[in-house]
């Protein structure tokens, strides 16, 4: 950035603006993330990459703000810290074109609009505002240019490193298979070391945490293979925090994953259905991706998700606002009940409304179960017996949702 240094008064104003920036309100950060991700659907659809972009947005805001607190109006060097460089690595490993970085220009526009609001809060003098906004405009533009140039240079380095290893061949082969390219099966199998005939079950294993122990991803991939009775599953590095995995067989021992999975901090697993042949290889993977995306979209607390369990929920929650309306309409005050009551109703419906079977599954006395069901009927807009299917679907949406709304009136909240 060139130009004369700002006046002492404007330096003070810049510092005051920067102090607001480094303590940005959560709603500002959410707006920034939403704008950047909306401008790049390929990034938004990938939970790991979307989380990395969110961290990078915050890091860049803080970097620029902190620099202008130290030395208001001085040139801000590019942010070459871990967050933006992670973006470079992940874009290359996913084969996403560098033009996805244009989304950051959208973020620059959002940040600039917020800075305008802040500037008009700290001064109403036209001359001061003119100088303040001129300095900040040039500063932000130069900072973003330099940071994006640094990311682009890192992309070139990552691409060069990636194309020298066997990972590139396996990743490229899988991409061709998923795209339906006419690659000979025998050649693909030789490259992958994995037979494409027979039954396949795919999984996406990932972590959204920046400091997660990534060895947990590989241990989870091996455990998933054992759950499918395949000692040598195919595992492809889709990103530093994501593995695409295929196992030859059905995941009939998937429940055995639950206990060890708790030891893999931050690791999550989305599993597709077992399917046959090369078409099954593709279909199971795409269904695992759908499961991963739904878990991320709902901020689900569940660590392991199967497509067979979430297919209907994924369809319903594709439009979050309408899904929320559906849940509220079907459950009424039951939406705000405690987890124990919700689980009782869910199990009862899943057991075809058979009280004896539901009580046995929940380890409850039958009379206790009936009392809880009576309480649920008091909270539901319609009797459970008249609307059990819709209630079951709404409860499944709640089960997979990571956050639940607070009751509008605590007097309506349900108790046991």
TrEMBL record:
Domain CdaR GGDEF-like, first and last residues per copy: 187-293
Residue intervals of the PucR C-terminal helix-turn-helix domain: 341-396
InterPro entries: CdaR-like_regulators, CdaR_GGDEF, PucR_C-HTH_dom
Origin species: [Mycobacterium] fortunisiensis
Protein's name according to its UniProt entry: PucR family transcriptional regulator
Top-level taxon of origin: Bacteria
């Amino acid at each position: 950035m060139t130009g004369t240094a700002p006046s002492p008064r404007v330096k003070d104003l810049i510092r005051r603006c920067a102090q607001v920036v480094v303590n940005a309100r959560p709603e500002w950060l959410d707006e920034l993330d939403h704008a950047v991700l909306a401008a790049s659907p390929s990034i938004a659809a990938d939970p790991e990459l979307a989380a990395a972009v969110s961290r990078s947005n915050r890091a860049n805001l803080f970097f620029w703000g902190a620099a202008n607190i130290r030395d208001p109006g001085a040139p801000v060097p590019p942010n070459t810290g871990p967050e933006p460089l992670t973006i470079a690595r992940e874009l290359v490993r996913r084969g996403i074109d560098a033009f996805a970085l244009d989304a950051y220009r959208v973020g620059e526009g959002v940040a600039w609009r917020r800075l305008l609001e802040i500037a008009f809060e700290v001064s109403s003098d036209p001359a001061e505002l003119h100088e303040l906004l001129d300095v900040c405009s040039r500063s932000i533009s130069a900072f973003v240019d330099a940071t994006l140039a640094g990311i682009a240079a890192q992309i070139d380095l990552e691409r060069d490193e990636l194309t020298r290893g066997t990972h590139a061949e396996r990743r490229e082969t899988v991409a061709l298979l998923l795209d339906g390219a006419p690659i000979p099966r025998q050649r693909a199998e030789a490259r992958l070391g994995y037979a494409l005939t027979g039954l396949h079950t795919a999984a996406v294993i990932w972590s959204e945490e920046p400091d997660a122990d990534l060895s947990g991803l590989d241990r989870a991939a091996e455990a998933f293979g054992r759950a499918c009775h395949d000692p040598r599953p195919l595992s492809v590095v889709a990103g530093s925090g994501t593995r695409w995995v295929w196992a030859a067989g059905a995941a009939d021992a998937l429940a055995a994953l639950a206990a060890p999975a708790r030891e893999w901090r931050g690791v999550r697993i989305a599993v597709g259905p077992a399917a046959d042949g090369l078409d099954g290889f593709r279909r199971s993977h795409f269904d695992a991706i759908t499961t991963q995306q739904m878990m991320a979209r709902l901020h689900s607390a569940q660590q392991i998700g199967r497509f067979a369990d979430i297919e209907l929920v994924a369809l319903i929650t594709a439009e979050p606002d309408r899904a929320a309306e559906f849940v509220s309409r079907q459950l009424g005050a039951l939406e705000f009940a405690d987890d124990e009551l919700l689980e009782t109703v869910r199990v009862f419906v899943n057991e075809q409304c058979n009280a004896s079977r539901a009580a046995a599954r929940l380890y409850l006395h039958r009379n206790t179960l009936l009392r809880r069901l009576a309480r649920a009927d008091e909270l539901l807009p319609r009797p459970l017996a008249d609307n059990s299917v819709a209630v079951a679907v709404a409860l499944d949406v709640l089960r997979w949702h990571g956050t639940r709304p607070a009751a509008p009136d605590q007097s309506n909240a349900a108790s046991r």
